[in-house]
What does this fold into?
Amino acid sequence: MLELDAAETLRPPSTEEVERSGSRGPSAAARAATPLPSGPAGATRGRRRESFPVGPASLAFKRRFFPEASRAEWDDWRWQARNRLRSLAQLERVFALSEDEREAIRRHQGALPVGITPYYAALMGLDDPSEPLRRTHVPVGAEYLRSPGEADDPLGEDEHAPVPGLVHRYPDRVLFLATAFCSTYCRYCTRSRLVGEVGGDYHFAYAQWEKALAYIEATPAVRDVLISGGDPLTLGDDKLDWLLGRLKAIRHVEFVRIGSKVPVVLPQRITRGLIAVLRRHRPIWMSLHFTHPKELTPETREACDRLADAGVPLGSQTVLLKGVNDDAAVLRALFHGLLRLRVRPYYLFQCDPITGSAHFRTPVEKGLEIIRALRGHTSGYAVPTYVIDTPGGGGKVPLSPDYVVGRDGDDLLLRNFEGKLYRYRDPGGRVGRAVGQGSAVPC
Ligand code: SF4
It folds into this structure.
């Protein structure tokens, strides 16, 4: 009760300071050049230093591009956020940009700006435009092409928003969009229409949160709230504490999930202070956005360890991306690595038809082929559910390779992961009739 009372007295600032000075301005270039105000200048000084491991990639990158930064600054998530690569000049300093990338960065306006933390840039191929992680964060010209079936809001989230910033698409759960800010911007983002832009149609401020909270309070069917955005872990501890406290105070909200890419791109954000907030509001579940095994660094391991040790169950969400991770060996390495980090591979998403994302999308067969290569060949815990989030707000539809071959009388005919046929006695069953129509398949 005391916790709830304390939370009630807290008020998040009326606007988000980080967004306010990070994104406003007449052009993308101007925005990109604006330094992040995530803390006062020199904020690292005077705060108790919280050490974080530094992997070999980070160390080499820091020495080369940020030699003046102290180790304390590099380990500080606010320093990382302030020093994100955003402008063409900042990107040119680090990457050998192709003409296509350079032109795409120059052309950019509006939402989904460029933003890459120094930590995450250190994992990218600086001289190779085809390197997987770089492809996910440095724009190319194909981003400006609209292919058939693509839309700015393909999942129809805005149509399913009873109040701004709250999507109610499934009966017992809601999506709470808490911020438009991300520490890095993925070029295939489902919410590319809104992330990274303040002053547009979305206003992630206190008044909007209050309306969303009022809707949840008035809707007893809602037992599960997914906080997303943008990335909610880019909010300060006080705001997150306030929001989680308010949600916890709603009787029918049984649990809260947070969707985040922060442990992957800004692991230093998982501070002891944040952990204390998450502990205070248990149960909190977390879905982490991983893409590639290159992300399995000592820093990310530390972040996941801290979360798991705090009792936060961790699952991963991965978007299947052409030329990035559309390979069974790559995803097997990622999923095995995640299990070692105590993160359960949860969803493998077919890339949503966002405007300008065709160059990332694989045929659906590719996803099924990858699941077939994993299922039975490795631990079931390492095999996520492959889903298509259906356009128009139909929700997620799971897809699986078909292991039912047909039916022979009371026998269901199944093919196992090795391609061998088996019979399973299933008297009176109907499954498989349409496939085998009673044909006798030799087993
Ligand atoms: S971190 Fe998530 S919300 Fe942010 S740009 Fe990437 S996919 Fe979009």
